Structures are given as structure tokens and as C-alpha cells.
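QA checklist item 7 of 12: single-chain prediction sanity check.
[x] sequence parsed
[x] length recorded as 575
[x] structure emitted
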Amino acid sequence: MSQTITGVQASAGIAIGKPFLLANPQLRITTVSIDDTAAEMTRFQQALDRAKDDLRAISQQVEKDMGADKAEIFNAHLLVLEDPELVGAVQSTIEQKRVNAESALDEVAQGFISLFEQMDNDYMRERAADIRDVTRRVLSYLLGVNAMSVSQMAEEVILIAEDLTPSDTAQLDRRLVKGFVTDIGGRTSHSAIMARSLEIPAVVGTREITTAARTAQMLILDGHEGIVIIDPSDEEIAAYQRKKAEFETQKAELAKLVHSKTMTRDGVHVELAANIGSPQDLAGVLANGAEGIGLFRTEFLYMGRNDFPSEEEQFAAYREVLEKMAGKPVVIRTLDIGGDKQLSYLDLPEELNPFLGFRAIRLCLDHEELFRTQLRALLRASVYGNLKIMFPMIATLDEFLQAKAVLESVKAELTAQGVGVSDAVEVGIMIEIPAAAMMADQLAEEVDFFSIGTNDLIQYTMAADRMNERVSYLYQPYHPAVLRLIDRVIKAAHDNGKWVGMCGEMAGDLTAIPILLGMGLDEFSMSAVSILPARKRINQLGKAEAAAQTKAILSQRSSEQVERYVKEAFATSES
């Protein structure tokens, strides 16, 4: 009899196949007293160097296959192995306790892992897996143990594991690994993010798959619903084969829309753009028919390295994106560091609540030279395409005016030096703080455009950390309070003749799309893989019909009521 296991939907798709249990060998660590601490230090350094060589090779392969922003995971792992706190603590333990390197490393690593796992934040808890991954690699060299590699598989399988490290995921052979299931993990874990990039179906956080499926002969993995069926019946296999074929047919049908414009049934054009983290993401953007870049997250240029990127490095990246987009609009967000995005080489004070702290435009206005360097690179690149500059985390009109004044100063400086700068660069802001949404009418008088960052706007409006599983039920994109703020922002912009985009996850949400279309959102920006489903959805809708439902939608009293109303009101449009 079959058994159904429920987990977290990490990556869409359906896989049917034999399970392959990835069981890394036990690293048995024994504490041994040593006399020659210098020799043990050398042994530790050699294992460290071999692990670093592995990570550099994986990083290069991932950058080639998936883009620079995905490779940053492994650059960050390299920084863990170069962290003087971790390395220094191991060396001190060897010297002071006169113990073998593997014992010292395990003791120090467990301390770091325990510290991260106790943090009240999903994102930070999941970083414990990164430390476990990199230190395990070093330990395997110290112990002379070859860990099982996902690259050793010889037939098509569904991979099951307690967890998949980022390096495991990066080495998956898409021809053989048809999907994976893990005991632990969430949608924000690196393995889940990379699974979506690889378009491999995945379910994570099942808690029991490695135990429940230990003797299984066959699995069905449904990444849409977040379920796994162990030893399914012939009828279940047949049903999911049909479901898989339907999914593949839908993908083929969507592919026909790549070169189409995004038009509503009543002939209104809506711009569908993509969010990117690096120039390497452009292949997917162009392959999915994006009509522009609605968000270039420039912080990825700063991460996974030991120093700030130079003006020339930044200029080259911005120029490449603008040229490849061939005149299509490109919205580039200035540096958004802080909160959950830290730079090892930028000494920032520890904060009790970094999401509400010293980050983004606040940091840039305080570190003006850092800001000016980025603005110089942006303005120099502006002559190569249709550039729009966006400031993040704006809370007050004064912040925007300060940032714009710095931009104008840099522009004047470049012009005086005879450097070409486009006169058509629009300057806008992200609306992600409720204060900015409430003051949108005044901000709209000064900016050229708004882009609504719903990921933060929702958590700030609901006072609910989106990384905290205890309050995740409050992360409600359809809540009337959130929708009323969005409606207010769009109206304020349009009243002042300005356009409005959205670059949060909500922009690609098929339930949210008719709501946003009815409110008059001009540009929807999302991950590249969401563009074609969103285009199909918009093509099925009439803008006037959607607008007629806005008042009723905003009068609903809960997120559930809104969702139910939208599904009923636009049911015929979905068919």
C-alpha cells in the first residue's frame, strides 16, 4: 500500500522514479593528544587548502552553468574557510589543548553551528547547514574519507537525503537526477533556490523521507503540491504520468508566447520584466521573453569577495546588461546591503533587528564615497541602453532628495570631466516601507517612477518577519491592508503622471495578477521562469473587467476572503 509524505514545495514539476538514498559516510572523530602542534597545524592547513580548491572548482562550474549569483554561494563558503575567527579558533584549540586537527575543527564547528541553529530566524538557522557543509569537506580530507558524491549515479533516480548541501545540489546531473526530497530545509534554503534555477522538481522539509523511503522501490514527487508518494500503486503512477505530461504540454504551449507582447483581452499592453542578480542571468531572461529588467539587484556584485568591486568592474557589468537588453528598460537598484545581506569586509555594528536597521539607502548616504562610486559606474554605463536608477528602502522624502542630490553631483562631476552621460535616465524609488506608501502622493511629485517591493512591504505592514516560521502565517500578500497600500501607491503615481512597477514575488503570483492589473499596475517584474505563465494569465484577462472588481476586492475583510473572491470573480478568465 502506498504512503504519502508531505513537505515544502521547493521547486515545481513532477518526477516518477527509483529512489537513491544519499547517505554520506560517518566521519568518526577521535580526540588524540599530540606533541608536534606545528605538524598538526600544517596538516590542518593542507586539508583546508584542498577544500578551498574543491569549492573554487565548483564555483567556476556553477557560474558557467547557472550564473554568477548562484556561484556566490560557494564564494561565501570559501569565506567561511578563510574566516580568521573559525580558522584561528581551530589553530588555538590545537595549540592550547594539544589535540589533533579533526578534533579541534569539529569542536569549533559545532560551536558555530549551535550558535546559528539557536537564532530565531529561518535564514540564519539555514546558514548552519553551510558551516556544516564546508567543515565536513575539510574533515573528510583530515580523516582520509571519500564522501559519497551525487555525481556517482549511473541511472535516472529521485534523490533522497537528510539534507542536500549547496555543493551537492550544484553537482547534480540533470540527465539522471529527476528530482530530490529531503528531511530538512525550507524554500529559502540554498538547495531549494538552486533546484528552481536548475528546474529540478524538489520537495524539502518532509522530516521523515530518509526513514520512510529507506526500502522503497518507487517514488512519485509532486513539486507543485509538496508531496511524495512512496511505492505508489499502478493507478497512482498512471495518474501522475498524465499529470506530468499535462505539465510538459503546458510548458511547450507557454514557450510559444516567448516572442509575444503581453496584451490583455481588451487590447491593453502590460510590461513583463525580470529580476536579475548578475549579467549571467540574462540568458534566462531573454529565453523567457522578458520585456525589460525590472530589478537588477546590484548587491550580488559586492558579495562573495574580499573587497568592494571597483568602479570599472561595476561599469562593465552594468554596460553588459544594458547592451544585451538592446534598448529595453533596465531598472538598476543601488546597493541594498544590511539586514540579511552582510559583507564580510564592511564592518557594520551588530543590530538587534537588522531588517529595520542600518541598511540600503541609509548605509549609502552614510558611506557616500561607496555610493558615489556606484553612481559613477551607473551613469557612465547609461549611454549604452535604457537605464533607470532606483533607490531602495526610502522612508522619507528627505532621504530621496539627499540621494538624488548625490546623483546630480556625480553627474555634474562626470560632465565636467567630459564623460558621456545619458539625459534620459529616470530616477525612482522602491516602495517597501509603509511610511513611503502613505506619503506616495508627495513622493510622486519628485520621482520618475515607483517600484513596489512587496517582499518587505508585506512583512513591515504585518509586523511579521517573513523568515520566522512562528509568524509566517501573517505573511499575507492578499491581506486587504497590503492591497490598500498598493492601490494607494498606484493611484498617487498615476495622479502625477508617473508609472508604477512591482518587483516583489507578488508580481508573478497568478492569483495576485488580476488584482494588480485592475489597480492599474504598469510593470510586473519577476523571476524569469515566472514570465510566461504570467503572460498567459494577463492575456486571458480584460483590464476593464479587472478594474471593475477592485472596489469589491478592497472591501474584503481578510486574505482568505480576497483569495476566494478573486478565484470566483476571474474563474472564467482562467479557463
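[x] summary fact logged: The chain has three domains: 3-24+149-233, 37-143, 266-574.
[ ] second reviewer sign-off
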